[in-house]
Amino acid sequence: MKITPIFALIPTLSVFWCAPALAWWPQGHSIITAAAVESLPADEVPAWFREGRAQIAHSAQDPDVQKNRELAVMNEEEFPQHFFDWELLQGRPLPKSRAEFYKLCQELKVNPSDVGEAPYAIAEATQRLTMIFAEARRWPDNPYIRTKALVQAGILSHYSADIAMPLHVTIHHDGRALPNGKSPRSGIHSKVDSLIEKLEMKPEILAQNQKIAAFPLLLPAIEAQMKDSQTHIDRTYELEAQFPPQQGEWKPTPAVEEFATERARAATGFTASLFLTAWRDSAKIKLPVWLQREK
Ligand SMILES: [Zn+2]
User: Fold this and answer.
1) In sequence order, what DSSP letters do the residues of 46-98 get, joined into one string?
2) How far is the CA of 78 from the centre of ligand 1 (A)?
3) Ligand 1 centroid to 193 CA: how many Å?
4) Cα-to-centroid distance, 295 and ligand 1 (Å)
5) Separation of CA 48 and ligand 1 centre (Å)
6) Full domain range(s) for residue 59
7) In the structure, what pLDDT confidence band is assigned to residue 1 with cuts at 50, 70 and 90?
8) Cα(269) to centroid(ligand 1), Å
9) Which of 177, 209, 254, 287 gives 20 to 30 Å between its CA and that of 127?
10) Number of structural domains in the chain
11) Is residue 3 in some structural domain?
């Protein structure tokens, strides 16, 4: 008898799939982002960028704000940018671009919106920031270019922090996936999302002893970060009973604190390294000759 793999059933079930909601909750995103800016090397990335920490941290919440069902076109585009249910690619290597990813999804008969598109959201946001930094190098005092860089860095930071949340890189995103591919929606996802906010983590502490380094290659670095995040999925489920309840009092255990701090620090270091990558790569960008910004 031929056994149908569960993946083959998944496209038809896509309407039932409810992917992750708001990783790290809004304050969690702002805390990680502030920590990432804080951990940047002071001798390389310009001071105006580091001083823009509050604007960057503010903007880091926006990709979740822009997931809104009232605005259906935007919502549909934004929704898959926050996760990557890697198992649905059935062991195939991560495609090098969004276009190639869509081609692979077509071949595998999976819906790209069910798989998620986080690696491409991160890579593209980093390169957009790289381009803005190239402008900032050419017109270092232009306030509009600075503002644009701070907003873009916040958007990037949102996506890069999302993949440090282990349930954002797996089909087991809200309870272990059922044999038919459906999520049991156990509620664990939002409990993990709430941790950084509920533990009231401090950016200055998360920024301590971070090793920040620019990445030579963007997509392999993103892939490595997602692989690392996947190694924490089992631990996430082991700790389920210790996560905060939906309502009521909660006393954090040392194990949960350790888990959440490690993930928040991973998100911080990865995000800061992407900022540094964008800054360093921006030195090599040749701006178009037709571009003449205000002095
Ligand atoms: Zn998100």
Assistant:
1) -HHHHHTHHHHHHHTTHHHHT--TTSHHHHHHHGGGG---GGGGTTPPPPSSH
2) 9
3) 10
4) 36
5) 26
6) 14-282
7) very low
8) 18
9) 209
10) 1
11) no
